[in-house]
# Entry
Amino acid sequence: MTQRASFGEGRPAHVTPTHLRTALELAAAGVPVLPLRHGKVPVGNCPACTRNACGGRPNMKTSGPCACPHPCHAWAAAATDPAVLTSPAWAPAWREAAGVGYHPGGARFTVVDLDTPDAVAWAQRNLPATRTVPTTRGQHWIYQGVMRSSNAVRPGVDLKSSMAYARWLGPGIGTITALPDTVRALAARKPTIRPAPQAPTVLAGGGKCRHRTPAYLERGIAMAEQQITEARSAIHHTVYRAFLAVLSAHGWCGCLTEAHMTRLFTAAQAKGESPRHCTDAWANARTTLGL
# Structure
């Protein structure tokens, strides 16, 4: 990956912003890339998609690239065409960028994202060796092959491949090996959501759960709905954090009912989240809390 491209006509490669220069090198190797802002999330939505007006699901019938002029749909906005990456439409995004993201599936890769030391130790015991990239809290293990992306397949382990993006953290070390069946099997075993019981739960001490107080529970659900409804960007992350907050307060004692879940899912879907994304976010929050 040695190609250098200018940021606008007539400008030499050595003044190309660092993140864009990295992106162009990856793109030259066939890796679809996009800018990321602080927090490892895509740069803000383009005007046509302000507040997720488009639903955030471009070309879902074909899972094709984002048709908007700006990198506003994460993995779907990732590109390998240097003319796109250096176009005036993308210039503000690269000026704002704090990092580079890439679409593993578009490059025929799968990233096993190991987010804790325990997860890394598990991979070392159970997965075949491949290229590894150190991250802030763990490692990325890169395999050759594409599969369905899935979060929280086990504690501290996410799978990023098709319809997902990962942060570029360097080339890593080791030889990339073929995607093993052991990794594919992780997605197949992903835990499914179970509806919360509708009857009041009796605590170990024999007392009725205090969260059954209507005002307390209603306030928690209403605050989560408001948080989701008022989100202007990072919709996926906001929905997950709202679900996590509700479950951390009310998920241990059986207060939550199907009606409460429906309210939260309805608010999320009004912001463009699909039913599958809602279910995944809820399941991931439960897994994080050990519910």
In short: Strands lie at 33-37, 41-42, 99-102, 109-114, 131-134, 139-144, 150-154, 157-160, 166-167, 177-178. Confidence is low (pLDDT under 50) at residues 1-15, 57-63, 190-208. The CA atoms of residues 46 and 273 lie 18 Å apart.
